Amino acid sequence: MTRFHQSVTTDIVIFTISDEQLKVLLIKRANEPFKDQWALPGGFLFEKEEPDKAVVRILWKKVEIKDVYLEQLYTFGSSGRDPRGRIITISYFALTPKDKIKIVVSDKVQTPTFRSVKQLPDIAFDHNRIITYALQRLRSKLEYTNVAYSLLPQYFTFNQLQRTYEIILNKKLDKRNFRKKFILLGLIKPTKKVLKGERQRPAKLYQFISRKPTELKKFF
Amino acid sequence: MTRFHQSVTTDIVIFTISDEQLKVLLIKRANEPFKDQWALPGGFLFEKEEPDKAVVRILWKKVEIKDVYLEQLYTFGSSGRDPRGRIITISYFALTPKDKIKIVVSDKVQTPTFRSVKQLPDIAFDHNRIITYALQRLRSKLEYTNVAYSLLPQYFTFNQLQRTYEIILNKKLDKRNFRKKFILLGLIKPTKKVLKGERQRPAKLYQFISRKPTELKKFF
Fold this sequence. Notes:
The structure is a homodimer.
Chain A: E1 7-18, E2 21-28, E3 38-39, E4 42-44, H1 51-63, E5 71-76, E6 87-95, E7 113-116, H2 127-144, H3 158-169, H4 175-185, E8 188-195, E9 203-208
Parallel strand pairs in A: 1-6
Antiparallel strand pairs in A: 1-2, 1-4, 2-3, 2-7, 5-6, 8-9
Protein name (chains A, B): Nudix hydrolase domain-containing protein
InterPro entries (chains A, B): NUDIX_hydrolase-like_dom_sf (IPR015797), NUDIX_hydrolase_dom (IPR000086), WH-like_DNA-bd_sf (IPR036388), WH_DNA-bd_sf (IPR036390), WHD_NrtR (IPR054105)
């Protein structure tokens, strides 16, 4: 059987929340095509290199980030997506509190910068499409998983949780309704701790029952 | 930048329900490696061929199936998965009523056979792992999407719906609980039709509000 040669890359969408905005990490391309344009961090897989390992290597090389939670997103392979010819890309996405990411600013790395998803610059290749797809996945995961844990401290108030949801979903949510629905999901539990504000009355602190990404609540 | 050469295949997990069992379509391999062993239908991508198009081509070539709903599952790329060297596979999964699949039995096709997921034979490569992954995806989709519509007729009783869930989840569900939870999901609506049995009293018929695969109910 004939085996055809394919070029395979990986591209990584890293989301965080800062300044009350959902942001994605972009880098400035050092080479053609799209030299000096913003793009997702990514690169070619070495021969025989496993995609999961390539992602870790590329994140370190391009933006000097490590220890970030990664999940495979989707594999894109249409012919028009790269001017160099058909290149297949295995995309990944990550979600992390901003302070957990250590970006080492050095001469080697390509100006890694978090940009608000609402005000993205011109982006190279089909990376806009990949970001849109990742955002969709993230939003749909909010509906039925504990994924928000990775953006919140261990203990948080219902207001903090709601604000996280509002920022990602890009809409205001009704306070009572949000509380009712979220409790129904069965993903969090109250603690005995409270958050004492200076002017407000103390707010009850909650925590996620599980802080592992794969555990979904079984409905049936 | 150096571009490495990769071999890329696609493998397809097609599920159906028949004889009250969840089954997956396997073919008998015509070539080495694993000649004469059961495997998922699959094959190499042509140079510059889009993965989605390769799947359609391969399904027709290997099992003479067309017009089946397909969804990309996951891309596997570990080094030990194929004795010919590292081959990346983009896997897909499908779910379809058995009578909608037209398998043309001919000399060209490789003995396409539906096998119960509970009694799978020895399977080539890491295809067992791919089937397990697909089954997981399918089960988790039952929790929050309308995916079951693709296995049910347009009008169905609550009992038929529950039985479909039980077969896929491989467990008995409490009738009252199932009904309560499913209504909460807001995916189906009652019709004015009834199913008249010979010995039972007529059962109310329901239908899915949407019979498109991507529409999920938004919780928030």
